[in-house]
Amino acid sequence: MTAGLDTRTVRIPIDVGTPSPPEPPLWAARGKRIVTARRSKIRYRVVEIQDIGTAFERILSYYQPRVRPNEGPRFKSFKSSDHVFVFRILTNDLIFDPIFDVCSPATFLLFSRTCRIAYTAVHSYIKRAFNINRHLSQYFHDPLAFRSLQARTSTLVSGSSALQFFNRLTYDDSDLDIYVPLKSRQEVGRWILGQGYTFKPNSVQHKDLDVALEEVHNDLNVYYTLSGVSSVFTFKKRSEHDPGRELQVQVIVASQAPMEVILNFHSSVVLNVIAWDAAYSLYPHATFERRLSLFLLGRKRDESAIQKYENRGWKMLYDIPLRDPTHVSPDFTFAPRWIGDGHSWTIRLPTEGIVLPSGANEHSAALTRDPCIATDWQLTGSQTIPEIWCTVVKHPNFRYMYVTARRRLLHEIWDSQIRVGTAEDTEERKT
């Protein structure tokens, strides 16, 4: 992405009667203007977008409206030749793909708001640029089989790999980190072994994968500093496309819920998640627009992680900046947050060819979304020592464990568990 970009106002003509494109996400439109004006038979939509350099300026120059004599500066007339940009450039992906490649996400999402043709062009680009099957194919021959495994086991992809997916870049020194519920560790571990990978045990793990998987329990492991982790299994193999590169897949086994582990990451830059049905960036405006990352572990700093992401172009924040003495930066609000809210960036992924998980029993329908969609959290602490607060919810009647910061919901679940336990005790005494 290009640093230090200016803000430009682009005026796009829209045919009268054409419905407006869908609104951009809340985080993408932050601080931008979208204004509609009308004169005679021409309707304009004015959008503030970022100047992405000489290439975009030259293409926009094809589309500079001509001003008639004695016409005021506010409204300009458009002739058929002025539609070159809209009808020639935006319909040719060989031209607009390189342009959007250097745009920030908010830039092309806002640009899609200008007219229906721009909307079609941007969303055509999104399908190509955010191709999850292509992204995963560097690790697995059959990405759809892996995503079907995700659907069955509620496995999530996060860390550097998810960041690369959203950032449309590849880091040579990165691996694939997948986060697995405790009960699914054996199925996932054996599946990866079947993809040609070799298990690389650490100093405390058994050399046989089946034995090592069997030895894992739901107690937190003192060997891992990341909260909520029971064990980590490392798999490696040589890349078939690049024999000089060694591929590495790490299976991080969560003692409870994978999202608990992810929300305990060191900083906001890596709070990105890929499920089988969608990808979510939790702090997209700070991460991809401002290139900021908020350190979330209080006073305990992971210097190696900080250095790695600073080298990749992010500025690390150790406290939350104020817009003014009474308002906290909207990038890092203390208000309740949840996956898929207006501050998140959600990319729905194609699910054709994925084997969906079955229902919990014959009376329940199969899930059509990954259970991580039910996650919510809250930034707490202070501006100088921010941290994410959430807790894991589990219940005898729940198929999955969930992560939430809603205290009222927690109390209701705890009360229901007490009532269930009391009723069972009463029945036992009667018998």
From TrEMBL:
Species this chain originates from:
Hermanssonia centrifuga
**Protein name per Swiss-Prot or TrEMBL:** Uncharacterized protein
